[in-house]
TrEMBL record:
Biological-process GO terms, alphabetical: intracellular zinc ion homeostasis
Entry keyword set: Membrane, Signal, Transmembrane, Transmembrane helix
Pfam families assigned: Zip
Residue intervals passing through the bilayer: 74-94, 114-134, 154-174, 309-330, 362-385, 397-416
Main location: membrane
A molecular function (GO) term: zinc ion transmembrane transporter activity
Keyword Signal: yes
GO CC term (a single one): membrane
Name of the molecule in the record: Uncharacterized protein
Biased composition (Basic and acidic residues): 186-201
Organism: Aspergillus kawachii (White koji mold)
Lipid bilayer topology: Multi-pass membrane protein
Length: 417
């Protein structure tokens, strides 16, 4: 009886063992087949379960500082919300204070006197681009809780590089178009060239050279008899010079377009990481101060009153909010690889041209390209201008280089771990 009773139990045990073996084999086969379809986020999650990686994570958490740095505390107060809310707050920060500072600027300010501030802004922009944006674009943001791995996708890197080039040449096209429309005066940030060019047309009329001198000689006797004629004469000279006024309006259009890219920079950087967003905000803020003052001076030279020039600058600031909302819409609707990796297991096949990228991931490379143009082609030629006094120019160059180093150093210190 005993052997007969044990027979069913043996059969059941053998069946369970065979089932476990079959289930394990199917699981292994399933993993082997589906590993190519896993997203980057899923692969990252599986790697975190590796014993060696878990040990690295424990070491990283143990070595991490227990208290947050001062800059982290300040940024947490300035940017307390979601990426969308923080991007809007950042746009307010970069648009409001620089424009309100225009009330303190005298109408006859010389834009060329802003060279040191422009050099400081160049250091900030290039520092943010080289220290923050480019590493974030190609490598991603570090995590405070665990180690991260970078999977190299050649086509992905090519598309990111293409986005940088598109951003760079977008500003090339905009600057070239403005130069053609204004007859050679581009949209620089200290407007030193525009300042020099604008003084020439405002002091003479558009006729031949003998005619203006004759008219000026005829006005001198009249000015002795009537003291009210010189002021209308200056106004008439501004009125009869449409090219200068056209340059002012075209500069407003270029400034509006430039502010749109600033808004895109705010949204794309905060959706990348809070640190990138905060450092980009600081860089753009210091860049906007000489930018807005230079535009303000150019509008004054174009015939605008101080109040109208300030009002026009506030209108162009709408472009920054427009760019921010466009960037938020692209990020929310188009998504980005970091947010969609966990929810979409077929991301490599649904990304751009078979990569893990989405349209939202292309905003940050575009921003980096625009920053590279503004920090190099658009501004550095103004810093390279020199005068005849060698001693003065050497001192000026040293001060400018120190300003660049300070601007870049601030960007380095902010994000230093």
């Amino acid at each position: 009886m005993a052997p007969s009773l044990l027979a069913p139990a043996r059969r059941m045990g053998l069946a369970l063992a065979a089932g476990l073996v079959l289930f394990s084999a199917l699981a292994v086969a399933h993993d082997a087949i589906s590993v190519g379809d896993m997203s980057v986020g899923q692969i990252e999650e599986e790697l975190q379960n590796c014993p060696l990686v878990e040990s690295l994570n424990e070491h990283k958490r143990a070595a991490a500082p227990q208290t947050a740095s001062l800059t982290s505390k300040i940024f947490s107060i300035l940017f307390p919300g979601s990426p969308a809310v923080n991007a809007i707050l950042a746009t307010i920060y970069i648009s409001g204070p620089p424009n309100f500072l225009l009330a303190l600027c005298p109408p006859n300010i010389d834009p060329s006197s802003l060279s040191v501030m422009v050099a400081f802004a160049v250091g900030g922009l290039l520092g943010d681009t080289i220290f923050h944006l480019l590493p974030e674009i190609f490598l991603g943001e570090d995590s405070p809780d665990h180690v991260r791995f970078v999977m190299v996708e050649p086509n992905r890197n090519l598309l990111l590089g293409l986005g940088i080039m598109v951003g760079f040449f977008t500003f090339v096209a905009m600057d070239k178009t403005l130069r053609i429309a204004t007859g050679g005066a581009g949209h620089d940030h200290s407007h030193a060239h525009a300042n020099n060019d604008d003084h020439k047309p405002t002091s003479t009329t558009t006729g031949a050279s003998p005619q203006p001198s004759t008219s000026l000689k005829q006005r001198k006797p009249a000015s002795n008899n009537n003291t009210t004629t010189p002021q209308p004469t200056d106004d008439d000279e501004k009125e009869i010079n449409p090219s200068v006024k056209l340059g002012g309006y075209l500069n407003l259009i270029a400034d509006f377009t430039h502010n749109i890219t600033d808004g895109l920079a705010m949204s794309s950087s905060f959706y990348a990481s809070p640190t990138i967003g905060a450092t980009t905000t600081v860089a753009v803020f210091f860049h906007e101060i000489p930018h807005e003052v230079g535009d303000f001076a150019l509008l004054i030279q174009s015939g605008f009153s101080k109040r109208k020039a300030m009002g026009a600058q506030f209108v162009t600031a709408i472009g920054a909010f427009l760019g921010t909302f466009i960037g938020i819409a692209v990020q929310e609707l188009g998504g980005n690889s970091s947010s969609a990796a966990v929810t979409d297991s077929s991301l490599p096949s649904s990304g751009l041209l078979g990569t893990s990228l989405t349209w939202g991931d292309m905003l940050l490379p575009f921003t980096a390209g625009t920053f590279l143009y503004v920090g190099t082609v658009s501004v550095i030629p103004e810093l390279l201008e020199t005068g005849k006094d060698k001693r003065t120019e050497i001192k000026k160059t040293i001060v400018q280089f120190l300003a660049v180093m300070v601007g870049a150093g601030i960007m380095l210190v902010i994000s230093w771990d």
